[in-house]
Amino acid sequence: MSDTFDADGITLERVRDYVWEIEQAESEGMNVPARVLASEALLEEIKEDDSLEQIRNVTHLPGIQQYALCMPDAHQGYGFPVGGVAAIDAENGCISPGGVGFDINCGVRMVKTNLTYDDVEGREEELVDALFEAVPSGLGGGGVVDGDAETIEGILERGMDWALEEGYAVREDLHHCEDEGYRPDADPSAVSKKAKDRGMNQIGSLGSGNHFLEVQRVTDVFDDEVADAYGLEAEQIVVLIHCGSRGLGHQVCSDYLRRIEDEHPDFLKSLPDKNLAAAPAGSELAEEYYGAMCAAINFAWVNRQLIMYQTRQVFEDVFEAPWEDLGMELLYDVAHNIAKKEVHEIDGEEKEVYVHRKGATRAFPAGHPEVPSAYRGVGQPVIIPGSMGAGSYVLRGGSESMATTFGSTAHGAGRLMSRTQAKQEFWGGDVQEELREENAIYVKAQSGATIAEEAPGVYKDVDEVIEVSDSLDIGDKVVRTYPVCNIKG
């Protein structure tokens, strides 16, 4: 076992099992080291794109604390790698839209049921057709509700509270959502009219790309006690919803990247990559971006809530029972493109930092006050989707997450191929047929190209990603799930 790993000119030193470090080079402008959490097999894949160079660039951001981090599912992104985590001083540092991404609060939520796989087997086509009909997907407009200016303002300002007031949620849904589905720092006035207009007719929609709604069954239980606390058991049917803030969030990111270029050009020039564009902490622009980002976060939570609302209606129709009788409770909703002010212990002192999680999931451990009371004794649920053919995992926030990763872990399997390459390698119809005939997975999408882009072979081995998280005790295995049917844009 080697103590170093050479990645085409970037040398990583082994700190301990699954933890690798790119040494801080102050002469090159690095303010801290960079750390990559990965097995050697995953490093071989991560080194194939610009992820390592990008995480090294992140260390140049002023105010960054301890180290910049790459999760085991890392792949090349915009500025930050996807799978990047950075905690930056909220008083003397900066906040980076590139450290959040264009799809603000892209995230996942899992809905439980009391159905078993036997209840669904043989009815997959009926179910996937009904879900495809009820849940808007694909590029462009179309949502569950027809938005107007008052609606969009209410969603941006109040998040899941708006959904509760309008009858799309029950109180327990809020209790089982990160931050109870509401960011009080949201400032709708900091969101442009163009962004609001883009979001107005997309409220309650999956969008396209890697976003999906997937009916799954629990195949493996790794921790009986925690699974019981989460209400999960073998052969149970669950539903996973993965999407974000749609065109609204994309426009917020675009707007503020442009403003950073215009208002802080010297600051931008000091960074090794203009895609790291950041607003200095304490500046008017930083406060406005934070307010706009938090508003987009609220929008994304409502977006997923409305999709869950539609899903409950579909299950009521297909299984001829009220959703309450079907046990369709929200397990949890987690964000994985976000930057939030959090207090962390750094060098023995508590410090408020902007924790940027770009393609990374919050993973707070047992006892943390921000874990919902229902789960505080065992730790926060962490939901990590894999590919359409590989299944997904539910973890619990690990005991070492606060010390190792600012309370974070991976967010998925991580891409191996670009979308363009995937469409060259795979044919959507073939992938769809193979999944159905060989794996009994029913997939429906707006286009074959979308299925090709998301073919199982496009992604890293999710089992390997989870093994790293579990071994480091940043996110511990609870259950594994496997797809039954899937709808995509």
UniProtKB/TrEMBL annotation:
Residues annotated to bind Mn(2+) 1: 103, 211
Transmembrane intervals: none
Record: residues binding Mn(2+) 2: 242, 336
The keyword Transcription belongs to this UniProt entry's keyword annotation: no
Reactions mediated catalytically: a 3'-end 3'-phospho-ribonucleotide-RNA + a 5'-end dephospho-ribonucleoside-RNA + GTP = a ribonucleotidyl-ribonucleotide-RNA + GMP + diphosphate; a 3'-end 2',3'-cyclophospho-ribonucleotide-RNA + a 5'-end dephospho-ribonucleoside-RNA + GTP + H2O = a ribonucleotidyl-ribonucleotide-RNA + GMP + diphosphate + H(+)
Keywords: GTP-binding, Ligase, Manganese, Metal-binding, Nucleotide-binding
Active-site feature positions: 411 (gmp-histidine intermediate)
Cofactor(s) the record lists: Mn(2+)
Protein's UniProt keywords contain Metal-binding: yes
One Gene Ontology MF term: GTP binding
Record-listed GMP binding positions: 210-214, 336-337, 385-388, 392, 411-414, 488
Matches recorded under InterPro entries: RtcB (IPR001233), RtcB-like_sf (IPR036025)
Protein purpose: Essential for tRNA splicing and maturation. Acts by directly joining spliced tRNA halves to mature-sized tRNAs. Joins RNA with 2',3'-cyclic-phosphate or 3'-phosphate ends to RNA with 5'-hydroxy ends.
Name assigned to this protein: tRNA-splicing ligase RtcB
Source species: Halospeciosus flavus
Gene: rtcB
